[in-house]
Amino acid sequence: MKTSSRAVITVIGTDAVGIIAKVSGKCSEYGVNILDITQKVYDTTFAMIMLVDTMKINISFSEFSEIMKKTGEKMGVVIRATHEDLFNAMHRI
Amino acid sequence: MIDAYDVIDTIKMIEEEHLDIRTVTMGISLVDCIRGSIKETADLIYNKITKKAEKLVPTAENISREYGVPIVNKRVSVTPISILGGAVETEDLTPLALAMQRAADTLGIDFIGGFSALVEKGFTKGDLRLINSLPSALGSTRNVCASINVGSSKAGINMDALKLMGQIIKKIAERDFMGCAKLVVFANAVQDNPFMAGAFHGVGEPECVINVGVSGPGVVKSALEKAPEADLTEVSEIIKKTAFKITRMGQLVNSLVSERLGVPSGIVDLSLAPTPAVGDSVARILEEMGLETCGGCGTTACLALLNDAVKKGGVMASSHVGGLSGAFIPVSEDEGMIAAAKSGVLTLEKLEAMTAVCSVGIDMVAVPGDTSAEVISAMIADEIAIGVINTKTTAVRIIPAAGKKVGDEIELGGLLGSAPIMPIKSTSPAKFINRGGLIPAPLHSLKN
């Protein structure tokens, strides 16, 4: 199965100062390249969606995902780092 | 760039609507473990299962983290143990169940299925040993699941086996009613089912295979909530689209697990499997379609629509669809079904009718402890007849809860939920059951 090296990082929760700085700092620390960022408010939820490339990641993606989750918990928002393939599988034919 | 709405849509399904991969089940053939000594057979079973599935749990957990998809259960299914049980020198096959339990403990999986026998046309020596070992095997293990196939559309119904199963189910329940939750009596059992308690690794299957069962009643219900005025054609379209997305996720996980473990990818089972959690109920989908309470008039039609639309949507999303593939209606495992049964609207008779149009059958139903073995056998016979005549899988998981009567409730815990004791007709079918013999295979034309 051909898998993509790209991933989607989502941040969902209430807005706070420094979220993007914190997330992009972690990306840079682990060799994850940011390709695109969008930010939207859905109903009452703040959502940031970041497309990243993990080609040069220096830890396993599974560990990176855990680190991002914990980073979010510290800031009171939900951060998920998910392989792009999931969204492609579910929403593209 | 991926569409932001698609990303939010997926996350919402997982976070709020209980979308998950219900099970990744590794099927393992144990045919090469057949020996004359029960101890040697048990050791070989343990060694083979723990070697083949060694990395199943960590691999599934890693994929779960990387893709943000909960994989609730990791399981193993094996060759029907009755095939191994015919060769050994002892009558009691409990040591083989204990070997399966030890393997489950070592691997950290939640269920292991395949303490099974296929007896639709008659018993082998191993089949009889296995059935007679069921009370002790299920009573002395926690995670071992058993299934007995007593009928098929090609062979008819083995009524001797049904008579025996009524007695065995009573014996299991007297020891511990939890045992009954781990035993399924089937018609037309499938060889690649990833769901428990009915999973076993059929003899037509490869050496080792990965099968995946998806879930998602909450996602379907939530999609329907957004279209309260839709007519039933639109309802069917909404369900199809939702089922497509759910199944694609299952297919992705199946491919990933199979590639990382170097094991062939088997099937994706398109079932809607409920849990006792609020918002994860099949009954509530039927009510969302417009029924006041699941079990009332209109239930069978709503379920038929749901089941058919799930299959139509899912079948294009997966390379290989298999297993049971249909909505499950286990009473104790579905919050809406429990409520409907408690209110008296959902009865055993209605459940029986519902099973004609969905997977699987009278499932996780508790009846009074004083229900006779003949009544249990006859009730299962009714259900099996529906499967055999309509060329579909049907099954029964029934719990005659010792000392309990209608109005009481039993607590099974976890995903098995809690079951209200449902009334069952107690008039005697003893003469019918005691006749024994085989009900011949049905005609497959002149279908009316």
Overall pLDDT of chain A, averaged?
A: 89
The global form of chain A is globular
**Which class of secondary structure composition applies to the elements of chain A?**
alpha+beta
Between the first and last Cα atoms of chain B, what is the distance in angstroms? 54 Å
CATH topology name of chain A, in short, is: Alpha-Beta Plaits
Strand fraction of chain B equals: 15-25%
Question: Could you spell the SSE succession of chain B in H and E letters?
Answer: HEHHEHHEHEEHHEEHHEHHEHHEHEEEHE
| Percent of residues in helices of chain B | 40-55%
Number of helices of chain A: 3
CATH architecture of the largest domain in chain B: Alpha-Beta Barrel
**Biggest sheet of chain A, strands in spatial order?**
2-3-1-4
Number of domains of chain A: 1
Query: Helix fraction of chain A?
Result: 25-40%
CATH classification, class level of chain A:
Alpha Beta
Rg of chain B computed from alpha carbons, rounded to a whole number of angstroms? 21 Å
Pair of chains with the largest interface and how many residues each contributes: A-B, 30 and 25 residues
Q: Structural class, from secondary structure content of chain B?
A: alpha/beta
Describe the structure.
- The complex is a heterodimer of chains A (93) and B (448).
- Chain A is built from three helices and four strands; from the N terminus they run E-H-E-E-H-E-H.
- Chain A has 93 residues and is an alpha+beta fold.
- Chain A has a single domain, classed as 2-Layer Sandwich (Alpha-Beta Plaits).
- Chain A has a four-stranded antiparallel beta sheet with strand order 2-3-1-4.
- With 448 residues, chain B is of the alpha/beta class.
- In chain B, a hairpin with a 3-residue loop joins strand 4 (144-152) and strand 5.
- The longest helix of chain B is centred in the middle third of the chain and has 30 residues, at 232-261.
- The termini of chain B are far apart.
- Chains A and B meet through strand 1, strand 2, strand 3, helix 2 and strand 4 of A and helix 1, helix 3 and helix 10 of B.
